[in-house]
């Protein structure tokens, strides 16, 4: 899959920090049951790569990606674990160049017009806007749409059930990402049904907005 196809898979990408790799499989099932087939596991915990490997092996119908990729070695590790795509919080020239040589769709994070220009220079046009709310959110994305036609975004950082509609209404927004879909307390208690319900409720809200 290309990075743009990844962004257009679903309107919502849960951003997940696994405290235990064993949470990954039931979580992926719970999300699928709720209609969310794409998920991002952040490489912020010791078991994240193992969690990705387990999901990729045991829940092949889910599209599992790796987040918080900070450099090329992490990108390679994510690919080797079975991640189908990768997301970084930011971009720099060294990483962008090295990432071109690693065969996995990468969605780099940007927060400004200058960073967007850097991403485009290396061929990346499916991007994460991060941290979306903090850097200007909907207003920034509207301002970027005229000079950067054809670029698609997944805003992440500060997105919630309440504000996601304003983002998804924008032409240059393909999907939104966030941690609200997978609250840590529900994961810790294994309350997977409630996670299914959050996914369903969020997708219904997207549909209702589309009318
Ligand atoms: C992150 O990298 O933590 C994501 O952008 C999620 O942000 P959120 O917790 O504000 O949804």
Description:
With 211 residues, this protein is of the alpha/beta class. It has eleven helices and nine strands. Strands 5-4-3-2-1-9 form a six-stranded parallel sheet. Strands 6-7-8 form a three-stranded parallel sheet. Helix 4 (72-81) links the parallel strand 3 and strand 4. Helix 2 (24-33) packs parallel to helix 11. It starts with a helix and ends with a helix. The site of 3-phosphoglyceric acid has 9 residues, from loops. 3-phosphoglyceric acid is lined by residues 15, 130, 156-159, 178-180.
Query: In angstroms, what is the radius of gyration?
Result: 16 Å
Bound molecules: 3-phosphoglyceric acid
**Which whole number gives the mean pLDDT?**
97
User: Helical region count?
Assistant: 11
Strand content: 15-25%
EC number: 4.1.2.14
Organism: Helicobacter baculiformis
Pathway: Carbohydrate acid metabolism; 2-dehydro-3-deoxy-D-gluconate degradation; D-glyceraldehyde 3-phosphate and pyruvate from 2-dehydro-3-deoxy-D-gluconate: step 2/2
Keywords: Carbohydrate metabolism, Lyase, Schiff base
């Amino acid at each position: 899959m290309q990075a743009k196809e990844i962004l257009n898979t679903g309107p919502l990408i849960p951003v997940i920090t696994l405290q235990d790799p064993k949470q990954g499989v039931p979580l992926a099932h719970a999300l699928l049951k709720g209609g969310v087939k794409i998920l991002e596991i952040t490489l912020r915990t010791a078991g994240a790569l193992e969690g990705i490997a387990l999901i990729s092996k045991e829940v092949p119908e889910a599209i599992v990606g790796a987040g918080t990729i900070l450099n090329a070695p992490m990108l390679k590790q994510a690919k080797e674990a079975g991640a189908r795509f990768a997301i970084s919080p930011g971009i720099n020239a060294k990483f962008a160049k090295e990432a071109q040589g690693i065969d996995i769709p990468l969605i780099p994070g940007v927060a400004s017009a200058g960073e967007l220009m850097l991403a485009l220079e290396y061929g990346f046009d499916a991007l994460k806007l991060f941290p979306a709310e903090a850097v200007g959110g909907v207003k920034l994305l509207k301002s970027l749409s005229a000079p950067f036609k054809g670029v698609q975004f997944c805003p992440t950082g500060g997105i919630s059930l309440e504000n996601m509609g304003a983002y998804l209404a924008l032409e240059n927004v393909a999907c939104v990402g966030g941690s609200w879909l997978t609250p840590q307390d529900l994961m810790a208690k294994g309350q997977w049904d409630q996670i299914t319900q959050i996914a369903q409720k969020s997708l219904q809200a997207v549909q209702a907005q589309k009318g």
